[in-house]
Design a protein that fits this description.
The chain is an alpha+beta fold and 335 residues long. It is built from 12 helices and 11 strands.
Length: 335
């Protein structure tokens, strides 16, 4: 058996009473001014070690004893087999703490890299069409009110392009519904699609193209984003991250108001761009065309944005499609 000195407060006065705790292989015995109290080993609770802070021994009758002599107490606990739990022992080791931290970081990274995209892929096709349509319509309305201006292209030119788009794009089975909008916009030549199928083409892109097939290729690419739900997948992933950060920081008030702009502010990933390119190439082939016009237009866009060095705007992400050279190579290899 082993003994250790302890302190006890009876709850009726502020006086510290000196007591002795005796540890055996079956019970713990406390002796003080009141006499003696015994408790089975299995019913005695020992607080976790917290550096050099005193530890507490709690009896089932409510008595609680403070022990400052940690080394003697450790020897007593060993005799009575009142060992710390495996979790407590691991917490006391730097190697275990560091390993746990690395594990948590690895889990967070894996959830972000693989878990979020998988969740986005699962949820995006299941978002009600009415929600997608409402989100896209409100986003386009906001852009028209704050950033975009009416197109300066002649109405006859707009109608001719729309007719050409329909002639080529509708030859593909299961093509998502789309609506074409021409707009005058800040920044360089671009086009983008909203999740509901609204495809917005800037006047500057029409002027940059040398043939209508090049513009058709761009629209086919944007419809690839719509068909593969890239916009909603990106939006869902960004919203989940924003929500988690908002909950952690205690402010979720601005999350809902920012959802629409996330459609435009988030860069598409490399895999999304390649998927959209493949979709466009297949669409063009089914219409009896090749992917060369789209490859040529990508190079024109790359050159135009690289040479312009224009002031940053909300549409800059449209010019940051990754790995243009690789995309062009893949498109030309697809024929």
């Amino acid at each position: 058996m082993r003994r250790v000195a302890a302190s006890y407060f009876d709850g009726r006065s502020t006086r510290r009473q000196q007591v002795e705790l005796e540890f055996t292989d079956s019970e713990v015995i406390a002796r003080g001014e009141w006499g003696e109290t015994r408790a089975p080993r299995s019913r005695v609770e020992v607080s976790e070690a917290m550096g050099k802070a005193p530890r507490f021994i709690s009896f089932p009758d409510g008595k609680r004893f403070e022990v400052a002599d940690l080394q003697t107490l450790a020897d007593c606990l060993l005799v009575s087999q009142l060992n710390d739990s495996p979790v407590v022992r691991l917490q006391s080791r730097w190697s275990s703490t560091l390993g746990a931290l690395v594990g948590v970081l690895a889990f967070v990274a894996a959830a972000y890299v693989w878990g979020l995209p998988a969740l986005g892929s699962f949820l995006a096709p299941r978002v009600p069409a009415s929600v997608v349509a409402s989100l896209s319509a409100s986003t386009l309305q906001t852009l028209d009110e704050q950033l975009l201006k009416p197109s300066e292209l002649p109405q006859a030119r707009q109608e001719a392009l729309k007719a050409e788009f329909d002639r080529v794009l509708k030859q593909r089975a299961a093509q998502p519904a789309y609506r074409i909008y021409f707009r005058l916009a800040p920044g360089g030549p671009n086009a983008f699609a909203l999740p509901g199928g609204e495809v917005v083409i800037f006047d500057s892109l029409v002027k940059l193209a040398k043939t209508d097939d090049e513009i058709v290729g761009v629209v086919a690419h944007e419809l690839g984003h719509v068909a593969r739900h890239h916009g909603m997948r990106q939006l869902i992933q960004s919203s989940i991250v924003s929500f988690i950060v908002g909950v952690y920081l205690g402010d979720v008030s601005s999350i809902a108001t920012g959802l629409g702009t996330l459609v435009l502010q988030s860069n598409y990933s490399r895999s999304f761009e390649l998927e959209a390119d493949a979709y466009a190439a297949q669409t063009l082939r089914q219409a009896g065309l090749t992917a060369e016009p789209l490859a040529t237009m990508l190079q024109r866009l790359e050159d135009a944005h690289g040479a312009s060095h224009q002031t940053s705007s909300v549409f800059d992400w449209l010019s940051s499609h990754p790995d243009t050279a690789e995309r062009i190579r893949r498109l030309r290899a697809a024929g």
